[in-house]
Structures are given as C-alpha cells and as structure tokens.
C-alpha cells in the first residue's frame, strides 16, 4: 500500500521531526510512505473573509497538484467524521481490498482546506472538535496510521 501525506507547512521543531521520523521508519514495514510538505501562505493579522478564502484557494491549488487520479483521498477536516482507531484501520484495510492501494491524507493550513480539496476528498476525517497545531497533528496522524496497520495485522500495540 502507498500512503501519501500532503500537508501545508514545514516542521521546524526537532522533537516533532524526530517523532515523524520514528513513525515513518515504523511504517516502512507496512507501506510506502511519502510526505509532501507544501509552503503555507502567510495570513495577515485581521485578514478579511475574502483574504482567508484566497489563501485557502491558493493552498488548495497547491495540494490538488499532488493528488493523483488513482488516489483515495482522506481530508482531515474538523467537520469530518470522527472514527475510532479500529474504524480507521478498517478504512485503510477496506481501501486496499477495494483496489485503492494509493491513499492520500490531506492536512491543510491554519485556515483549513479549500472547497475544491474537500470536494475532491473521498472521505472527510476529524480527529476531534478541538484544534491542534498542524505540526503536532502530523505526528498524531502517522501514529494512528501505524496503529491502524498494527490492528489490521492483529499485532500487539493497540490497547
């Protein structure tokens, strides 16, 4: 299975890079992982709704350039569906069984994802109604994908 994580923003903190590297290394046993980091657009203080929409569209266009036609796209969206770790494992497993061996997880910028990206998504996933730092969220996503593969394999990690 091929997993692509397309995310807006760069990781600067060494401790987060180390965690991402650790989960990326663990995932090599289960899938081919590709992380695509895109530049985030600077949002001015007190940006108008129109300015925010333009920023999301610009970031969205950048994201869409990296989504291939054969990808099953999972957009991380606060308005998406909340699922358990077991449900996420099932989603990953079912995708592979249905021939969707190219999964793309999309993490937007601080303003969220554009309508175009959300419309392209095959599934909208929410981890919580809470807001998380995008850099930390990447670690959380990789951990849950790793946990999902462990669940699929019936391996002792998940509790």
From TrEMBL:
Q: What Enzyme Commission number(s) does the record list for this chain?
A: 2.1.1.177
* Gene Ontology molecular function: rRNA (pseudouridine-N3-)-methyltransferase activity
What keywords is this UniProt entry annotated with?
Cytoplasm, Methyltransferase, rRNA processing, S-adenosyl-L-methionine, Transferase
- In this chain, S-adenosyl-L-methionine is annotated as bound at 76, 108, 127-132
**Pfam families attached here?**
SPOUT_MTase (PF02590)
Query: Mainly resides where?
Result: cytoplasm
- Keyword S-adenosyl-L-methionine on this protein? yes
List localization entries: Cytoplasm
Example GO CC term: the record gives: cytoplasm
* InterPro entries registered for this protein in UniProt: Alpha/beta_knot_MTases, RlmH-like, tRNA_m1G_MTases_N
**Biological role stated in the UniProt entry:** Specifically methylates the pseudouridine at position 1915 (m3Psi1915) in 23S rRNA.
**UniProt similarity note:** Belongs to the RNA methyltransferase RlmH family.
Q: How does it assemble?
A: Homodimer.
List the protein's name: Ribosomal RNA large subunit methyltransferase H
Q: Which organism is it from?
A: Clostridium homopropionicum DSM 5847
């Amino acid at each position: 299975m091929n997993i692509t994580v397309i995310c807006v923003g760069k990781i600067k903190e060494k401790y987060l890079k180390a965690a991402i590297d650790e989960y990326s290394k663990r995932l090599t046993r289960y899938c081919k992982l590709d992380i695509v980091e895109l530049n985030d657009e600077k949002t001015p203080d007190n940006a108008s709704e129109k300015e925010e929409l333009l920023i999301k569209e610009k970031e969205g266009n950048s994201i869409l350039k990296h989504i291939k036609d054969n990808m099953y796209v999972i957009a991380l969206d606060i308005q998406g569906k909340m699922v358990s770790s077991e449900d996420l494992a099932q989603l990953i497993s079912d995708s592979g069984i249905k021939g969707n061996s190219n999964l793309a997880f999309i993490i937007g910028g601080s303003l969220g994802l554009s309508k175009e990206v959300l419309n392209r998504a095959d599934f909208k996933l929410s981890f919580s109604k809470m807001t998380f730092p995008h850099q930390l969220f990447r670690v959380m996503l990789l951990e849950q994908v790793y946990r999902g593969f462990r669940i699929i394999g019936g391996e002792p990690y998940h509790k």
